[in-house]
Amino acid sequence: MIEAYGLTKHYGAKTAVYNLSFQVRPGAVTGFLGPNGSGKSTTMRMILGLDTPSSGQVTIGGHTFRQLPNAPRQVGALLDAKAVHGGRNARNHLLSLAQLSGIPARRVDEVLGVVGLQDVGRKRSKGFSLGMGQRLGIAAALLGDPQVLLFDEPVNGLDPEGILWVRNLMKRLASEGRTVFVSSHLMSEMAQTADHLIVIGRGQLMADTSVNEFITQNSVGFARVRTPDGDTAQREKLTSALAEAGGQVQPEEDGALRVTGVPLPRISDLAHAADVRLWELSPHQASLEEAYMRMTQGAEDYRSTVDQRSGLQMAAAVPQGGFPPGAMPPGAMPPGGAPYGAPGPGGYAPPQQAPQQAPQPQGQPDPYAATQAGWQGPPAPASAPPAAPTAPPATTNPEDAR
Ligand SMILES: Nc1ncnc2c1ncn2[C@@H]1O[C@H](COP(=O)(O)OP(=O)(O)OP(=O)(O)O)[C@@H](O)[C@H]1O
How far apart are CA 209 and CA 193, in angstroms? Predict the structure, then answer.
């Protein structure tokens, strides 16, 4: 069990983690979710004794990491898969970690098999793809057969088969009674992998809930209601009528209203009784990704703005007849569209539903399947988001990472 109490970390004026308290229980996969820069890696580093809390504390089985006897046999971690000596082959990398922790050499071959790298164990890791590197990092975490496992964004760089493999591995480790704590910024992935969720934003706890509870709470249907654009009096009149009828009304970014607690026909009747015209009344289902994004809204460090392309407009330079297909200028607005999915000028953009499920593999062979056959060729191009920028070295040994 991992227990954090009032965990806080300041880096100079920057507060990376603030007053975080949670428990990560054995026998379950606990997803650690938060937008980029929300403090997930910092929290994991504090759990592993690689960073010292400014206040509060975090323990594993009642001990801080540094107090744990033979910590590498009790706790395994994947923090940054790239933190490997590139000139060393995979087997020697694992062998050196094993020797530091008194782990027998035969275990190295076992974990190479578990992650499907047995046939490339003698290849230098600098030639490894992102996905192979992740597998090597996972092998390092499994080396001591630990009861507690931490994985920071383990599916980064993995193709769909790799993602499925990691998902099944996490579940299997938890079913063996281990404590599995895995960070991600993808709710869709965590919804399929985790039993429990800890969500943080700007270093603070936003939710500590079971996945089932999160799904039940956030899978509610809602109605989108839209009054004529620019007619705020009509919008307010309808908002009051809906609130009086017991509905919860929230504004959407495009000016529509999101209504829960009042069925669609009743919304129509209420609008009619209040003499409010409707431009839209439609049923919707919130996706988990959307619920997560609403929860962490305002807690993101990095928000994009629409590119104004100041001084780079090329109106005079557009060739007669426009650009040929495939030769649009960078950032150009496609016909009738808007850059980066932003609503067009004055136009209505339907709400973007985030995909609820990560891509499911279609039965292709997994080149790294942990089978007798071992590695069967190079992986498909990575489909997952790029690796997190600031994670510390992967290690099963605190000394290694300092
Ligand atoms: N050593 C450091 N010195 C200064 N600031 C840091 C340091 N490590 C992290 N931070 C800052 O603390 C905040 C939390 O960073 P952290 O890497 O823990 O977030 P994260 O949730 O893991 O992000 P990501 O998903 O992008 O990896 C960020 O604003 C980051 O810039």
Answer: 14
- Ligand 1 pocket residue status of 340, Cβ below 6 Å: no
CA-proximal residue: ligand 1, atom 28 (nearest): 37
Task: Give the residue whose CA is nearest to atom 31 of ligand 1.
Answer: 37
Q: Please state, as a whole number, how many other Cβ atoms lie within 10 Å of the Cβ of residue 313.
A: 10
**Rounded-to-integer distance, Cα 140 and Cα 110, Å:** 11
pTM here is 0.66
| Pocket lining: 241 vs ligand 1, CB cutoff 6 Å | no
Compute the chain's Rg from CA coordinates.
Answer: 25
Give the architecture (CATH level 2) of 2-216.
3-Layer(aba) Sandwich (3.40)
Tens of pLDDT, residue by residue over 105-146, are 899 999 999 888 887 767 776 777 788 888 999 999 999 899
39 in contact with ligand 1, CB cutoff 6 A? yes
**CATH superfamily of this structure's domain 219-291:** YebC, transcriptional regulation domain (3.30.70.980)
For 20-57, what is each residue's pLDDT tens digit?
A: 999 999 999 999 998 888 899 999 999 999 999 999 99
